[in-house]
Every structure is written in structure tokens, then in C-alpha cells.
Amino acid sequence: MAEAVLTRPAETFSVRVAIKRVVDTLATVLVFPLFLLYRVVASLAPARADRIFQGYSQLLSLWPGITGDFLRRAFYRLTLRRCSTNCSIGFGTVFATPEVEIGAGVYIGWYGNIGHVSIGDNTLLGSNVTILSGKRQHHFERLDIPIRHQGGTYAQVDIGDDVWIGNGAIIMEAVGRQAVVAAGAVVTAAVAERSIVGGNPARVIGQRGSTAPSGST
Questions:
Q1: Are residues 87 and 73 in contact, defined by beta-carbon separation less than 8 angstroms?
Q2: Contact status, residue 203 vs residue 185, Cβ threshold 8 Å
Q3: In whole angstroms, how far apart are CA 203 and each of 53, 67, 159, 181, 185?
């Protein structure tokens, strides 16, 4: 009897994994025509490929519930540079480009705005988090030309493994592994590993793993 009780959690886990794989496959089948349409349209206007991708991302962001999570993940597995089968992308989250990598165990909350980024494994993003493609997206040095015509520089932002980014944070620079970014923080300089940062601009307010008591963000 004891042996049967001990094996039950493993059996339950195996069933859950099998069901998830079936639903993932079904979601992939459902979004595949949308993926093909995106590829065709993008191939006809390669100079506007990111704008076209954003439109499809906006559409998928509006599908609610668990089914929306499965459909978004299926589409992004086909289109992003890398997207784990074990991640969650919340309602209302929009990607600005397919040049994105999402690791295993990543959670992206509701209404995220995601630019060029590589997100490490087991990283958590709260709701309304914005990740810009660096901090030079708009050049504004010249006064004789409107800012909208001065172009910009897009850079990949790297976010390490096991990072927690609180609600409403804005990320413009790299965040090291196991760091914590407080809600509402604006990260304009690289965050070191295991640092806890907050404020605008974000500054170090603590260190993970230190002997001092840690508070929540």
C-alpha cells in the first residue's frame, strides 16, 4: 500500500505532461495557418517585417484564459528566435520583434511590452513590464531634424536566469542572473548578479544572499 501511494504523484505528473503535450500540439495546429499567413505577408514586405509581426502579436495577445496562453506559446515557438515549451505569456503582452529568446520556466505577466531581449530560465516578469531594445532607440542630438526622422539604435537586452522583475518596471539594460528589480523601477544601467534594485533611475537597494533581512518588492 505504501509503495502505491509513493508512486501516485509521479504517475499524476506523467499524465499532466502527456496532456500538456497533446494540447501544445493542438495549439500548434490551430495557429499554423496564421503562422503561414504571417510568413507570406512578411516576405512580400521585408522592410516592414517587424511592423507586420507586431500586428499578429497584438491579435494573439487578446485571446483570454489558458487557451490563449497555449496559442501564444505555440505561435511564438514558430516565430521567435527561441521560445521554450515551458513558459507562460500573459494576456495583452505584445512583442515588437521576433528577435527574442525565452528560456524554460519563464513567466511574463499581463500587458507586457517586449523588445529585443534574451530572457534566461526561470525568470519572472510582472504585469505591465516594458523591455526596450536598449536605451538608444531614438536619436535626438540634432535640432534641425524632427526626432522621428533621426532614427535610432536597437540593441538586445540580456536578462539572466532566476530574475524577478516587478510590475510596471522599465528595462533598458542587462539584468544579471538572480537579480531582483522592484516594481516601477527604471533600469538604465546594467544590474549586477544578485543585486536588488529600485527607483528611477534604478539603484542598488540590497543584495540577495546577504545576511540582512530581505523584504518583498
A1: yes
A2: no
A3: 34, 39, 17, 10, 9
The alpha carbon of residue 81 and the mean position of all alpha carbons in its chain are separated, in whole angstroms, by: 12
**pTM of the prediction?**
0.85
Single out the residue of 129, 45, 145, 124 nearest to residue 95, CA to CA: 129
Q: Which three cell numbers stand for residue 89?
A: 505569456
* Rounded alpha-carbon distances, angstroms, from residue 139 to 6, 67, 147: 62, 40, 7
All domains of the chain, ordered by start, with CATH?
1-79 (no CATH), 80-217 (2.160.10.10)
What's the pLDDT tens digit per position in 84-132? 999 999 999 999 999 999 999 999 999 999 999 999 999 999 999 999 9
